[in-house]
């Protein structure tokens, strides 16, 4: 594990810096990536700072990636934010640079990079980037930088709702407010859904299978997506919806992908679910993870395993 000072010293050394994050980026991936890029550009205008990866259509209002060529990677510093595992990095040329840094808040299951900073107590990678900037005499937490980082924190804390929200998270967010960031505008933008997404939220309550343990499953298959004219990205937007029901303590939302397999979104209010995700080609945080199921049988098997986890958790009286 490296210190912020060591990471800043490396940033100062390189003329070209490429910042990457995970596939299917969420606001924290984009916020930490673009917030760090903006801070470096503002402090060192002579450096070329690029942000790579594929865009998420619904988050283009926050940030869009740039084209990064093979030549750009030559002699470059590559910084990967918010990404635990190398296969999930949204540009598999990540190792083609001269030096690699990992900055993340997920469990450090896949240790990679020449330098590394991981803090699983941080609410978000954006919170870590805010601390990194704060620790430096060169980088500045400006209103523009804070805009991206605020969106990242709001995204990963569910608007300061999840237990990962700490006193420190609130202090960092407070600094953003002091800088004049229009937090209400960002909150409203992040709360926005299309009419068809709102209709899907209603459907979720109809299709939820709720076990007596408090485990629940929602399957959003091609039929439902076609009926509501939704693509996979739009279907992902309702992942947190079941968490509002008092009957539910952990749930999985299975969203069918174009190839027929299912993207599994696991969420919990207590029982630890990332070990289950790891067993199904995934990973993530103890209370928020992602995985893959190759077919409906594996979806059902994962639900059975989730029921067992929740039942054990209940029996322990945790
Ligand atoms: P999602 O359900 O896709 O929103 O993911 C929930 C959390 O788990 C996020 O922090 C993701 O970065 C993480 N995650 C999702 N899929 C994986 C994976 N295959 N490996 C490791 N972490 C993942």
UniProtKB/TrEMBL annotation:
Ranges of residues in domain DDH: 16-153
Pfam families: DHH (PF01368), DHHA1 (PF02272)
Boundaries of every DHHA1 domain copy: 227-310
Gene Ontology MF, one: nucleic acid binding
Protein's UniProt name: DHH family phosphoesterase
């Amino acid at each position: 594990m490296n210190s912020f000072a060591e990471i800043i010293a490396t940033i100062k050394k390189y003329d070209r810096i490429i910042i990457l994050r995970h596939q299917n980026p969420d606001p924290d991936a984009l916020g930490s990536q673009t917030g760090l890029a903006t801070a470096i550009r503002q402090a060192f205008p002579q450096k070329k700072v690029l942000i790579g990866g594929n865009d998420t259509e619904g988050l283009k209002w926050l940030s869009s990636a740039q084209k990064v060529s093979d030549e750009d990677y030559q002699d470059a510093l590559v910084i990967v934010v918010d990404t635990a595992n190398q296969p999930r990095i949204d540009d598999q040329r990540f190792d083609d640079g001269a030096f690699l840094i990992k900055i993340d808040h997920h469990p450090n299951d896949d240790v990679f990079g020449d330098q590394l900073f991981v803090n699983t107590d941080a609410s978000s990678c954006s919170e870590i980037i805010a601390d990194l900037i704060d620790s430096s005499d060169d980088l500045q937490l400006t209103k523009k930088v804070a805009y991206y980082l605020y969106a990242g924190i709001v995204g990963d804390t569910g608007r300061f709702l999840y237990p990962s929200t700490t006193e420190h998270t609130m202090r960092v967010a407070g600094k953003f407010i002091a800088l004049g960031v229009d937090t209400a505008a960002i909150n409203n933008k992040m709360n926005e859904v299309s009419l068809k997404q709102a209709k899907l939220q209603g459907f979720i309550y109809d299709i939820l299978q709720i076990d007596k343990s408090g485990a629940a499953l929602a399957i959003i298959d091609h039929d439902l997506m076609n009926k509501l004219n939704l693509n996979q990205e739009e279907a992902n937007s309702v992942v947190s919806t079941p968490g509002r029901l008092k009957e539910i303590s952990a749930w999985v939302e299975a969203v069918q992908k174009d190839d027929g397999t299912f993207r599994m979104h696991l969420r919990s209010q207590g029982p630890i679910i990332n070990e289950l995700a790891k067993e199904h080609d995934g990973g993530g945080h103890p209370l928020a993870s992602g995985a893959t199921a190759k077919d409906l049988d594996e979806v059902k098997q994962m639900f059975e395993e989730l029921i067992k986890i929740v039942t054990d958790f209940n029996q322990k009286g945790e």
